[in-house]
Backbone:
């Protein structure tokens, strides 16, 4: 029984070395996830969904059964990991870990309507949550794992830069509100409403639906637009630097 549990654990985890079964399982699950995401997208095209509804429902049911078996298998074998080795609390701790919650949310939208009577609108919202399955690829894809690692290691720098952006957005929106409110009481009716202009300007998208008309407002808008180019480059630079650092580290480890 111990060997069986160990083998199930090795198969479910990302394949390494010469473990062909584990690698094939990784490819199978990743393919199934991609198919599911494509189906969720195609379901929104009504003519396609109406015509192939039977196949949509069949693939969804088969996928949920496979994902459910995978989830139960992971909960069962998680005690083989050192941090979850306790036979009871280890499993409880694993169930509430973010990786296990992703697995749970991937199958939950299927089971909830079967267990509880729900409004049709709420069921449609639940179906959207099937896109969470895309995040399951983080277990098997090196690229996804690299992205997660970069965000983990650079989270402090990202939080600082995003906080600075938020402060800038509030400050710019407040100034623009007091400058433009009298000239455009509907467009700049409050600071929260003005934040829409602030987001569009700081991101340099500039939809053009809300814009300053006074001379001072236009001057401030121009400065904020120029600052936005540099400010929004900060998180991008941090992430790019993180990717370069992680790739260099992995290359050294491989060598």
Residues:
């Amino acid at each position: 029984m111990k060997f069986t549990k160990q083998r199930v654990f090795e198969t479910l985890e990302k394949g390494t070395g010469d473990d062909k079964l584990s690698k094939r399982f990784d490819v199978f699950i990743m393919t199934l996830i991609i198919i599911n995401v494509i189906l969720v997208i195609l379901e929104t095209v009504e003519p396609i969904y109406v015509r192939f509804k039977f196949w949509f429902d069949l693939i969804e049911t088969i996928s949920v059964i496979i994902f459910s078996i995978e989830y139960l298998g992971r909960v069962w074998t998680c005690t083989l990991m050192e941090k979850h080795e306790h036979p009871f609390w280890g499993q409880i701790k694993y169930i509430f870990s973010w990786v296990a919650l992703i697995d749970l949310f991937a199958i939950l939208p299927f089971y909830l309507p079967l267990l509880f009577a729900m409004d049709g609108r709420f069921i449609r919202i639940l179906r959207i949550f099937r896109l969470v399955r895309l995040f399951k690829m983080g277990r098997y894809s090196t690229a996804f794992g690299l992205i997660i690692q970069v965000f983990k290691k650079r989270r402090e720098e990202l939080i600082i830069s995003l906080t600075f952006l938020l402060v800038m957005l509030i400050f710019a929106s407040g100034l623009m509100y007091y400058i433009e409110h009298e000239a455009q009481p509907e467009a700049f009716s409050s600071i929260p409403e003005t934040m829409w202009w602030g987001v569009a300007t700081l991101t340099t998208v500039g939809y053009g639906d809300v814009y300053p008309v006074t001379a001072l407002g236009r001057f401030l808008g121009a400065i904020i637009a120029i600052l936005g180019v540099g400010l929004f480059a900060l998180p991008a630079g941090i992430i790019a630097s993180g990717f370069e650092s992680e790739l260099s580290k992995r290359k050294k480890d491989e060598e």
